[in-house]
């Protein structure tokens, strides 16, 4: 189907079986593809109407995905895999990753109190953690989510055990600043715009970006139950086509990025000042310590399709970290589970239909901050390769918020 005539799909046997969808999202900059698809005509071009429903927590979003109140959602990669594997109190449910929504664009921030004490570098943080009598408390957004995994990975790479040397708590993204301001947490890992917002309100500084941990890492996905994808295959494909088209549009020009930031700032979506959203969406960073830079691996919503292909190795990585930190007692069949969850055939059909290039490979290779290389070839060995881990721990201690 030529991308210039999307309505050809709508009138034939490929018409969406379910044209009106309830889509969940969190108030984060990386929900942009769904907001643009729903509000700027991209969904309608593929025979869909998208009812966007903002959620207040990832746990709430998870529950509504499972009970059918939401058809699909802007979701944490790790949330989908936790549901697939039955981690975190929910019974195992077959899930589907329809596509990636973005790479990069998250951050670890520390409090103004630590900044005033000179804890402004990884080395200073390591010294403080190991010498202080009181444990620092770090917040992430969901026990099996990407932010927990970035926080744990980064801390461990600096010689800080994330489950022994510090305390970890779950706080929804929009509540991070309130917790920081009240002194209930000493730092957090969260998606934008809440890291940038903390800086603007002089509530500390950005110590590390997630892309400094893993350049072009997987982040949010378009997730649903596998039952939805199998019951409504045309709908699922049309949804991927619409979101892909919206993602491509956002990154076609700086002006499109700016207009997207303006759209996201509205009360219905992020309900945040444009100044908290636009700079980092444009890759313009400052850390609150006087440093400014144009980040070469800033938030990517499309990147000519490279940010959207649901690589098997991306899903597998999160399972290796679940194993590493005691969320899984045993090794799953990493590749088999990823093949069930990642809807690669559906994604490739949709991408081809809208003229988005697809890599032929289902795996990719990346080097992370600690020098380790991840390519999906030996997930069991990789999960065991880290000097800091919780492989001997019981998973129950880390399975609940």
From TrEMBL:
<keyword id="KW-0813">Transport</keyword>
<keyword id="KW-1003">Cell membrane</keyword>
<dbReference type="Pfam" id="PF13379">
    <property type="entry name" value="NMT1_2"/>
</dbReference>
<dbReference type="InterPro" id="IPR044527">
    <property type="entry name" value="NrtA/CpmA_ABC-bd_dom"/>
</dbReference>
<keyword id="KW-0472">Membrane</keyword>
<protein>
    <submittedName>
        <fullName>Nitrate ABC transporter substrate-binding protein</fullName>
    </submittedName>
</protein>
<keyword id="KW-0997">Cell inner membrane</keyword>
<keyword id="KW-0732">Signal</keyword>
<dbReference type="GO" id="GO:0012505">
    <property type="term" value="C:endomembrane system"/>
</dbReference>
